[in-house]
Each structure stands twice: as structure tokens, then as C-alpha cells.
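Quick entry, no commentary yet.
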Amino acid sequence: MLLEREAELAVLETAVSEVDAGTGALLLIDGAAGAGGTALLRHLAIVGGRHGARVLRAGGAQLERGFPLGVVRQLTLPLLAAPDDGDIPVVARKMLGALLGGSAQDPPPEMPAIATVLHGLHTLLVGLGEARTVVLLVDDLHWADELSLRALAFLTARLRGMRVLIGVVLQDGAGTRDPLVQEIVRAARYRVRAEPLSVAATGKLVGAQFGSGYDPEFAEACHEITGGSPKELRTLLGRAFSHRLGGRAGECERVHALGGSFRQERLRFLFRRDPAVEAFGRAVVVLGAHARLNLAGRLSGIDPGGCAAARAALEGTWVTVTPERTVVPEPGLVRVVEESMTAAEAAAAHRAAAELLTECGFPPEDVAVQLLQVDTLRDGREIEQLRSAAVAARRRGAPDAAARYLRRALLDLPPGSAGRARLLVELAAAELDLDPGSAVRHLAQAAPLLPTVRDRAAAVSWIPLAVAASGPLVSELVRDVAEHLGPAGSLDGYDRELALRLEARTWYAGLDDPGRLADAHRRLAELRNGPFGPDAAERELRSVLLLAGMLTGRADATETVRHATEILDHEPAHSGRAWSVLRIVPLLLAVAERSDVARPWLAAAREHAGRAGSPAALAQVDAQQALGLLSRGDLTAARDYAVRAFEAADPGRPDTLVLPAMALGSVAFSARDKVLAVRVLEATAGAGDLSLFAVRRSLRGMLAAGRGDVEAALAQFLDCGRRLDRAGWQNPVLYPWRPAAAVLSARLGRLDEAARLAEEYHQRAAAWGSPVLLGRALRIQAFVTEGEHGIRRLRESVELLDTAENGFELAKSCLELGERLRETDPGEAERLLARGHRLAEQCGAAWLADHGDGLFLPAERTRVPARRPELTRGEATVAELAAQGRTNSQIAVELRISRRAVEKHLTSSYRKLRIEGRPDLAGALGVGSGTR
């Protein structure tokens, strides 16, 4: 059944009729493989038979291309074997008689013999044509042997006046570089193209296989799989029928699976039949993204003609050629190629691809992708190529790719070689951004193999500060190398720079050692600027020493700002070594309440981190921005930056998580945000960093206080204080455990302890010397002090905070002073409360106006007689019923009011009572709870 071939069949009828009238011609049938060209050729034989023509058939085959005159023998031997056929001229029998004894092993006839064969074939066809029309059919013309092609070309040039129709089938793209094939094609008077079938014709074939009740979706799926190729359609439908499919829409997925498998089988058959196609397909798959036509041809090792033919055989079904002449393989081709190659063949192919790409000047990473697939690196040149690729990968911000190249290079290096030590160091440098633990292990392996102390110091100096403090393995490695190199004061040049960097890491690793910290401030004073300011290594050391001085309280805010400003003035924000400064110096300026100094530098650092595509650096910048905003009392913006930093930080890398967790924890504590607090606690579980320990204890204390468990809250803050004191961390800014402990002690009636903690906090705040900290300390003292003395402290706090840039702390002091003055000076109290409300709104802390400092709720101030806020009669009635356990619906029914009115009364009561919700009502009203 030939579908959608009406026009083509008409051409076949015309050609036979015209030739029957005495006009010889050649008819060409072309089209893609499987499109039905052979079926049209068979139909041409039927048409010729209806016209009474003698039909001669032959076909080319790839494996028979070496058989001389193989196609000619197929056409003539049946005739020559019939001695009684009177239509065959006697002279033709004599001229073609030599063909009767030929075999595949016969050498090609000499030129005179070839001429005899050609003329004999012409004589034969002329003689046969005198009796009736001859239809000579040749399938797969491109596979015909060369001598047969010469014979056909000879005949096509002499068809005029002969009753001979030559019909040939040629696949798309085949024979394009064979001059004999092209000579025959150019002689064609009639051309017929076998086009793919439409969806409608596909449906007819599906109906013939499964009956008229098939679903159109099934036919569409079959057409999509085969592209309308009649041959593939029949094969697919036969398989579907044998697998008991019924042509239903629900079977589309199954027919797709069948189509994929049989198409791959056809590709395997094509590979077996045509090694050139297989070689081209392998080259395309091996080259991957670099499979340009010229490179695929060179790697496959086939000539240009064979390459063009192989491309034609695969294009459309298995490969796509882009306008840039890149060959893109389909997944099915990749699977078949990978399954067909042995491990040795694959390694050889990838090595050849690497050599070809190197020869053509491709970048190192493109070559390295091929070398990663090689089983064994042969020489140092291939190892050097992988190393160059790693350098390129790190430059483009891809440390994971760099580590992959270096790990592969290390596989084939002897354990004790100097080259191995160099690669280990480079691998560690790449892994520092991915897996600091592995980086340290590789540095420890490399250090003994490096030939000089300077080499070892250079390698170890790349360890980030946080990693240097991560455990005894790395801290001992740093200390050992530093001791062998010697103190910076006795060295100069590059050796001095290395010594300073190692010293910075030694100091950082000892930040929780009080004995070590005691000398940090003295060491900072010893450092003197050169004529151009501190160099890069000294800036890193100064940053660490300044951090130590801040933590111990030996450096005050003024000194900290002076040193930090000098460091930022000389440190380029885009420097690869700026990581240490980024982690420390903006934090110090935020603690000293001068985050404005770091703002331009952080903006430049963020721009550089964005260009470099470094999420870790972006997280550090955003965390520092959050801490700076928090130091100015801007809770809303600080929260946004802190959340963004926390989400960008890698939870699996403690060295990059510490600062974002500190920032978000500080925001959560300041804003009394329980959701953020829980988030930080969950993400930092098991963290051993002392900074995170303090943050976690503070957040746990805050949550316990919010639940009303004052004893547990106080225990958390006191535990935090004891641990920080043991480490020598005395600065009151970063980890304000004392004010929280003072307030909680006062709530428990331990007024002497509260006063002592508040006084210590005030003394440390005065020593540090920043106005916001001192204003906060005065407010805490006022909280634990009754009467006029407490009010005087609050006035001092408000006056001091008026000079600072922190509306959040000023709002709290204004609100506290306003509450204190409600009874003695209502006018001033109202003004202070209004100002406090306005400031709280502006800094994103509107909850302060309703609830005060949520750490102290539910509040029970032991030093001041409790003042019960005045509720309206309706509010008091609803609140008391709710405190006794009634639901909103029950209250609404009992009081005969709407449920919405109940909710409004309760909301107003919560605000006036300064509580968070229903569980706190009984305590605030002094009534028993429970359902009546």
C-alpha cells in the first residue's frame, strides 16, 4: 500500500509510456533512508510489466563494492544463462561471456576488457529494446562498485533512440563526492522524491494494523517517533502489535519506549554496515561540545567524501548541524556510541581528541575535559595540561572544576614526587572554597614533600583564618612552619610577608586563649607603618590583633576606629587576599558604631564578589552590612541583609556560616524574633565556634524568657558569660549577656545581683567609649534602680542617645522614661511615649510601642509597684472570661455580642496589659485560670 504517492506514481507511468514510444531515459528516485524509495522502484517494475516491458533488477551493497562489475553481473547473468532467448544478440553473448566465470576474488578486468563489457552491455540493451521496452532498475546506486557505475554512466550517455528506462534509487547525501554517481544523476530526465508520510497517512497505517478504532493520539505519537518514514512506521507498528498494544492514547508512553529501542537497533545495524558512519558518530560523541564538522572529520580519520556521506546518513535523525557547523548528537546516538566502545577504545578516542584540540589551539579546559576520560596519563605534558586547566578554572570562579582536574592529575603521580607536592598545594587552594577540611589534609600531605621552608610557608599562608582555627591539625601545621621560618622581625622581603601571614593565623587560632590574647594589644603597638602604609600581610595581621584587642576590651572604640580606617584605606576591596579584612574590619567598625566608614568599601567588595560569582563572599558582605545597619538601629534593613546573607551561606562550611549566623542571630535577638531565632539555632546545631556559642546561648535565653521561664533564661545568659570570661572576651558590645542577666535577675527579685551586673556592664561600656553602648548601659542601670536615681539614669540615657545615630535604642529609652513619668509628670510622659512610638515605627520595631522590650515579658518588675493598666468595662469582662478558659465563641454567646467584638476587646487588652496573648491573661489580671 503506497500512501500519498499519487504524483510520484503518475511520473512513473509517464516515464514508462514515453520510453515505450522510443525515447530512452533515466529516472531518479531520491529521499531519506526508509522514506520509501525502494517501494517506488518496485512499483516501477510493476508499471513496466503492465506495459509488457522486460524488467532487469540489481542493487548495490556496501559489502560488495569490492566485487568488480557486481551490479552489471546481477543485470546480465540471468539473461546469459538462458541460451534459448532469441532476443539477445549473439554478439552481445560473446562480448559479455567473460562475466559468466567472474567471482569476488577476480582482479578487475584490464581496460580493453572493460571496454568490451561496456559495448557488450550497450549492444545487449539495444537488441532487447528492438523487441520490447527494457526497464533496468538499480537500488542503492551509491553502493554500486566503480566499474558498474562506469557502465551505467556509459549507458545513460547513449539512451537516445533506445527503448530503455533506467531507474535508480539514491539516498539523500549519498554519493555527493563520487563523480560517476553525479554524472548519472545529472543525466536524469525524471525525478521522483520519496517524502515522509503525513500524520493522516500514518493514521491509515495504524488503522490497517489495529483497526479503525485506534486513538488519534497514538497515531500522532507514532508519527513523532518515526518522522513519517514508511519503513520505520511498519517496523514500529509490528513491534507494537507483538507487544499487545491496541492503538490507544494511554499507550503512547509505551510506544515511545519501543520506538527508541528499535531506532537504536537500526543505528547499530547502520554502524555494522558502514564503518565510516560509526567512526563519524564516535568522533561527534567524543568531541562533545566541540564537534565541529572539520574536527569530527579529522578525528574520525575518514576522507571528506566519506565524512559527507556519514553526515548525510545521521543528519536529521541522529545529529543536527547548527549554522556554526557544530554537530549536535541526539541522546540515542550518545548511548549507542558509549555502549559500543570498550574502555580501551574510549580512552584512545579521548586521548586523540585531546591531541587534536591541543593542535587546534583550544583552551586548556577543553583539552582537560578529554583527558579526564583517559585511563592513564602517559607523560608530564598531559599532567601539565590538566594543571593549566585548573588555573583557568579558578580564574573564572569555578574551583570545583579546578579540583576535579587536579585530582585526576594526582592519580598518576608517584606518592613522594616533588611534582605531587605542587599539585597538592594547588588542589588545596581550589578546595578551600569547597571543602576546607580536605584542603587542610592535602596541605598537610604536601608540606613534608615541599623542598624548602619558604615553599611550605607559601602553601600554608593561603589557609583562611577561620580554617586555621578549626582544629589542632591545622593550627599545629601553621605553628610548626612559622617556627621554622622564623619571626617576621628577623626577615625581609617575601619571607617577612610569609612570616606575618603565618603569625596572623597563629593569633587567630588563639582567640579563645586568654593567656595568648593578653599580648595581642602589645603586639599591635609594636607594628610600625612603612612609608606607604601597612603592606597586605601586615594589614591582615593588624586586623587579627585589632579583633583580639576589641574582644579583650584592651582597645577602646576610638583606637579601633583609627586602626580599622587605616586598614581599609590601604586594602583594595577587589584583592584576592581581602577575605581576612572582609571578615574582621567592618565588624569592628560596626561594634565601634562607625559602620559608615566601612560602607563604601563594602559596596566595592560586593561589586567585585558579584562579578567573580562568589556566593560565599557575597554572604560575608551582606552579613557585615546587616551588622552595620543593626548598629545604627535600622532593624528592617538589617533583617533583609541578614536573611539574604544567611540563605547564601553554605551550611556545610562553618568558616563561611559564622558571620551570617552571627548577623541573623543578632537581628533576631534585637527584634525578639522567635522565628528567626529558631532558624539560627537549627542551622548552627553542633557548631564549635565560640562566637556561635554566645549567639546560641543568647537566643535560647531570649526564647526561654518569652515563654515565661525566667530561671532557665537566666541560666542561659550566665552560662554564656562564664564561657566568654574564661576565654578573656570582655567587650560588652558583641555579646551583651550582662544586661539580659541583670534584667532577668531583677525579675526574680535578686536585686543585688542585678545591680552588680548592671554596674559591670556600665563600667565596660564606659571603657569602650561608644555612645550607644553607654546609653544602653545607663538604661539597664535605671531598670534595676528605683526612684529618682533610676529616672536620672534614664534621662542621661536619652540625652546621650540623642547624640548618636540609633533610633532603636533611643526609642527604648524614651518609652522606658515615659512609663516612669506617667504618674509624676504626665505631660512629659506623653511626649516621651509619643516620641518613642514614632522612633520605634521608623526603625521597624513597632512592637516596642505595644509590648516594650519583649525579653522581659511577661513582666513582673519587683523594684517598682506594679501598675495595672486601666481597661474599659467591656475589655475587663471579656479579658476575665478569656483568662478563665472561655473560647471566643463562648464569650460572644454569653455576653450577646459578636465574635468580632470579642476579638477587638482582647486585642486592646493585650496591648494595654503589655502581654503577647491569651496564656498571659491570668497572670496579668491576677485571676485564676481554668474553665468554669
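second:
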Amino acid sequence: MKEQEYIEIYGARAHNLKNIDLKIPREKLVVITGLSGSGKSSLAFDTIYAEGQRRYIETFSAYARQFLGGLERPDVDKIDGLSPVISIEQKTTNKSPRSTVGTITEIYDFLRLLYSRAADAYSYNTGEKMVSYSDNQIKELILKDFDEKRIAVLAPLIKSRKGHYRELFEQIAKQGFVRVRVDGKIREIEKGMKLDRYKTHDIEVVIDRLIVNKDFEKRLEETIKTALYTGNNILMIIDVDNVKPRYFSRELMCPTTGIAYPNPEPNTFSFNSPKGACYHCNGLGTTNEINLKKVIPDDSISIKNGGIIPLGEQKNSWIFKQLQTIAERYKFKLSDPISSISQEALNVILNGGKETFSIQSKTAGVTRKYAIDFEGIIAFIQSQYKNSDSSSIKRWAKGFMDEVSCSTCEGKRLKKEALHFKINSKNISQLAQMDVTELFGWFENIESKLSEKQLKIASEILKEIRTRIQFLLDVGLDYLTLDRTSKSLSGGEAQRIRLATQIGSQLVGVLYILDEPSIGLHQRDNEKLINSLVKLRDIGNSVLVVEHDEDMIKHADFVIDIGPGAGRHGGEIVSKGTFDDLKSQDTLTADYLSKRKLIEVPQKRREGNGNFIKLIGASGNNLKNISVKFPLGKMICITGVSGSGKSTLINETLYPILNAHIYRGVKKPMPFKDVEGLEYIDKVIDIDQSPIGRTPRSNPATYTGVFSEIRSLFAKTPEASIRGYKPGRFSFNVKGGRCETCQGGGLKVIEMNFLPDVHVECEACQGKRFNRETLEIRYKGKSISDVLEMTINDAVDFFEHIPKIYRKLKTIKDVGLGYITLGQQSTTLSGGEAQRIKLASELSKKDTGNTFYILDEPTTGLHFEDIRVLMDVLNKLTDKGNTVLIIEHNLDVIKLADHIIDVGLEGGKGGGEILIYGTPEEIIKHKKSYTAKFLKKELKKKG
């Protein structure tokens, strides 16, 4: 074989890789698998992708590179046969409310182009089709329709606006015009002429009066030009005998009322551009409005006793002095219940007012003047929300507001003009609200609804839109709508959208590296995803996937298994070849794939403690007013296809309710009617997929809090006590005990102009992070730096007799992370490892037996063996009487649950209902449920 048919890697040593050499076939679907932390991501992302990226940046000029910042060369001797690399990771997408599915996939950009070039405009006043003419067409129409008639040609300037317009009349007179038409009557302009400023007026300038015939054609032409120039591309014709006006415009215009739209451009339909965004909500679709019920929740309390929540109880402040003045003016006392205060006075308190009034003092017999100058409580809260720099004040102000759909655009984000451009009687916002399947159907037969001219313009754009929608369908995202904000997408959805966008670009000869694309995907949609990757390979790309999913491994052309253990026990290639080659090997992965090892189904399901939490009438996003019972003391699994409403039900509705009840959490739950049974739990813990730390200074010891205990222990040693060292002395983040040369980092960054920054070991402390004096303090012969270098397994034995430290470390070991070191940088932990550290940190706290744990897809990034270890931990928790609720697609987890709640049937609009609930054995009897179908196979296979 020719050399270039492989990507050849020599001497890869990134993180825990043990100097490995490897040949990966090109233009094939290659899967890298192995235990969590064995080095899969180190090989795929930190070696192959990092080198590809570095080579790309090397092609730039030295001048350009200084702005990009250098990329560090990965720790590898050499890589041959590397194509340009594109990585599709699970990085969470843009959190901006302006980013939507439509904007990420570029479908919305093509829709904007389509609407700006091929849509018909309709008047928002009369619903008539808008018209626009060239100067020549206007002349021909006037000659034809007003032949031999006496007409006045006018240029409209003011349409239904208030004002006296004196300056405007002076300006018109200076331009040489002598007549204007004001509110339907033609008048001569007089010196100092002005109108009633409080009434609305229509004003047009009379450009010319003439009889229409061929002799005056030249004059008519000049008049039309002047009128269009003066009237901003609109002119008006009045037949002297029949006074009804007619409008003509170079731009789009309503033939009856004369309102005009500017000619559409793509950004007329963009909610991120001032040209298209709704004025009221700035294109966000929602506004924050004050909720009076939150400002005055109980009107039987007086203002003095804190009836107005933002103000609190009466104190000696300017605001209360103003309220006292208002009270005197409207004859009430601050100690009266708010319900007895007149509506007029309440209006001034809430919305503000300015007035001066006099009150005669009965005792002194003199009259005193009082001034009210009060901005109003509502305006005060709004100004604090808009203008304050403090996030806590903003949060305080937001507490009195509700996020409501914008009253002007009704949540559609665009100006009303943009919403009156239609194709086949649908505006762009209506298309963005359709789910992808419905949208595809709409575009299928659109040609028959378009005119010949529209077809000519739109044919290329339609082709682009269709292919992009098809790619979204191919990766199983048929339930998304284009207006769905990207911050509401799960990690797996965001990754598959990026995958669809990449397939859409149709590049060839590229190496794609994907990080577990099957996350958050139901077994039903796995097939679609695998087909998409096969398609990418077939057009001539190499596809490298880091994955644990059995189906994906089966479909791979070549499988690389990294192991044999994790962390420092991994980093070697234990097997490579086809799926069949892998099964015959003696590795952990092979044991599970060939069913030599199994995750056993429990003999009997737990009965629970007989109590329930009942959620009634949940209707957020696509939930269809459902009521759900969560049995306590069991392991509950929420299943269903992607987009069916699982996250909405648990993360957006149930968790915020529990959090608000127990910890006074501020997150507002999605709409629901009622909840029962909260008294049966006393703690709720949510463990999600977000990373535990983004700086190299964060590590498992600091995150779990065990490092504080270790520092306190070192501070109590006799030597430390003699020297007067406190726990802070043993921190590498504060001055005192740390090495000041590298500021406790252990590494120094050497900046090389034009070349990548180089990280070298600090020569002062040899990478130990602390100064000499601190390192002299030893506990059982080990310094604080030695302790950070220990693996969790070693540390468990070392601290065996210190219960506080031992308990926390033991839990980290129990979740299968015994191989990581205490001081390992958080940035080098895989997604699965970070989530298990969170889990360990929660598990090490004393549980009450009434704790409610919520885990969102905890098997992300976990190998079969890791899932077994994790489920052992969760089973122990449930055995103590706690409730563990897991949102999951992984059948190994689902089959272990005591109670399954299946949401479905489809995603998006076709979901949001509870299909069936009960034990796995009851679930598999359901005919329609997709989960039931796959679970049945799984229980047969391993039951």
C-alpha cells in the first residue's frame, strides 16, 4: 500500500499516552474506544487535531500569527499523512439569546435572502398587495388614467403626526413652493403659518398643477422627478374634479393608503439588525415587564409595614419623605392598608408625578407649600434593571418582573413591515416556527405556488435550503424549530447541528474528529447518525470518532481500543482492527462486546417508601399539560426520544420547583398548575454535564473541598505550629507559601514572538508549586506537593486514619476515579471524569435518606465498565432510602431502574406526553413506545 493511505503517528506522549506508534487508515470510519480517562481524547484531540490545527496556523504569515497566538506543538515525534482537520466537539454552543437553530445552520440566512428577493409585500393597513413603479411607468399610468384631466401633483411629507410645523412651512417656501395641502385642503403658504400642535396632521407639498396631455409630457416628467425627490420616493395625484387621491412610489407602496415599505434587503428580515428587529424588544421576542403582584403581593398591609416590597418597612429616607408628601396631598396615612388608598394616589406612587400644592396648617395658621417630584416605583425598578452595573441589583430588579412575550411583535422578533412579506401566504416568522419536518414538507411543493419570475430568482436558494433541511433530518433533529434558541439545546443536539452544517459544506479530503456524537440520542435515531457519518466517509473524507456506543463500534471500518486501564494505567493501544478482531481480544471492551461480561439486571425491583411527588399540569415548551407521579425511594429513569420533553419536565420544571422549595432558588420553573408531596424530601442535588473548572489552578482536590482539610492537617503538624503557619500557607493560590517565581502554577510560560508560547517547569521550585520553607513541613514523610502528586488510590491508604479526608477520597475512588492525581488540572479531565467528580463531591456529604438526586445523562463519556461502577454507587444511594432520578438513553442504565417514565412519542410537537410508566417489565409491553422496543431486545439479550 502507498504510504499516504494511512495517517501515521510516531511517539505520541500527550497526557497519559505512553509513546505510542499507530497507523490509522484514511477515508474510513474509525472509532477510538476504551475506558474513560484511558487516553482517547488525548490521542484524537490533543495529538491529531492539535497538530492539524498547528499546521494550519503555520501556513499564515508571521505577521498574522502574532495576532492569533501560537498553538503549542503536541507532544509527538511526527505525524504523516494528515489532512486538514475539523473537530466537532461537545462544546456547549453560544449562550446568546440572539443565536438560534436557524442562524447556526445558516438556513435562516438563506430564508432571509429568499424573502428579500422573491416575496410579495402586503399592506399592513388593508392587506392589499403592495406595488412599486419606475419613473417611466408612473408617467405612462398618469397619461393613461388622467388623460385631459386637471390634476395636482403632490409630495407627501407628514403622515398622521402631531406638531405645529412652522419651520417645515418656512423650509418649503424657501425651496420655491407656494402651496401645501393640509388635512385634505390646499392652502397657500403664509408667513409664520403654523398648525394646532396637539392634533394629528397630514401635509403634502403641491409640486405642480397641470392638464394631462401629450403636449405637457416633458413638464410632467420633470414634475414627477421633483415630487419623488421631495416626497422621499412617493408622490400623490389629485384629480381636481374627483378629490380621491392616488399614490405612486418607486418603493413598495399600498395603492389605497399610500404607506410605503423600504425595498427589502436580507437584513430587513434579521432580528439581529436594527433594520429588521422589532423596536420594542430589540429583536429578542420577549420583554421584562413589572408584575404588580410581586411589587404589592398583599394589599391589606400598610406602606409603613412594608406593603410595597421593593421599599421594605418605613425608614428615614428620601423616598419615604416623598411618600409622606403624597399621603398629605391625597389625604391618607402611610399606616393605612394599601387597599384603602385611592386609585389616583396609587397611580402617583407607582408611576410617579410632579406637582406643587399648598396645605394650611391648622395650628400655626400659615399655608405651607409642598412639592411632589417622584419618578414612581415602577420607573425606579426599570431604571435600576436597565442602567445598574451591579449584577445583584439587576437580579433584585428582575425579581419584580416577568419575562413576557413582546406586545408589539408578539414574540416574532421582527418589525411589522418584515412580517408582511409573504411567500405562499406564509411570512418568514411562520416558517421559523415550523419544526424541521413540517418545513421540509412546505418546501417540497413550493415551486407550484411561485410565479415564473420568482422561480427564476429562487431556484438556487431553494436548492441550498432543501439540502440543509435534509441534513438536519438525517442527524435525527426533525423536531427542532428554526427559532429555537441555541442556549436551550443539549450538548448532543448542538454537536449534531454542527455535524449537519459540516455535511452541508460538502468538503472532500478532510479529517473529521467527533467526540461522542451519540450523546443524548435515542437508540432509534442512532441509525440516522451512523448513516450521516458513513455519507461523510463515502464522499472522500476520513472520519475519526471517539465513542463507546456499541452500534457505532459495529459499523466502524477500523476500531482502536486504548487501555488497559485509565489514567496512568492507560495510554497504550491494546487492540486495533475490525470489530470482529476486537471481540476476540482479551480487553475490557472486548469482554463487554462479546457478552463475556454483563451489567446484570437486578432480581427484583425496589418497592420505594410509598410516598410520591406529584407534578400537575406541566405545560412548558412542548409538554401537553401533563401530570406525573415520581415515586420516592426508588431509582427513576426518564426516557424518550430526543426532543420529547424530558429536560423540560425535569431540568426546567421539577428541579426549579424543588430548589425553590428547599433552598429558595431563584430560577423560575416552566408553567405548571400544582405540585404535591414536597414535604417528603429535605435535599435536592442536581448533577449536570458542565465542566468543574476552566483554569489550570482548579483540580479534583480543590473542587471536592478535600484540599482545605489537607491544608488544615498540615497546619496542625508540630513543625508548622512552631513556625506559626496557618492553612493559607499551604495554598498555591495565595502569597506566603507558594513559589512566587511561577505564582504557584508549577510551570512558567515563556512567550516567544512569532512562535508558540512554551510551558517550562519552574526552575525555582522544580514544578512543586511551593517555596522551600513550605515544603519542609512534612506529614508522614510527605510534603504538600507530594500529596498533590498522589493518585486517589494511594491517597485513600495514606489518609486512612483521618475520617474527614478519607470519606471524600473514598467516594472519588468509588466512582471509578482512583487513577487520577489529587492535583491534576481540571482542564485535562474528560467530560465523564468531571461529572463523576461532581457526583463524588455530592456523595461525600452526609445524606439524609430523603435526598432527591437528579442526574442528566450521567453515562456521557463512560465505558461499559465505568457505567457498571457508576450504577453500583447510585444503587447504594437508593438502598439508603434516597431517590435517584436519571434522564438517560443508555439501555444499561434503563434496565436497572425501578420505575421508568417514558415521554413521547416523537420529538418536538409530536412529543410532550407521558406514554407509559412502571417497571422495565411493564414498559416493554407497550406497543408504540420506541424505548419499549429497544428495551425488550436488551432484556431478552441479557435477562
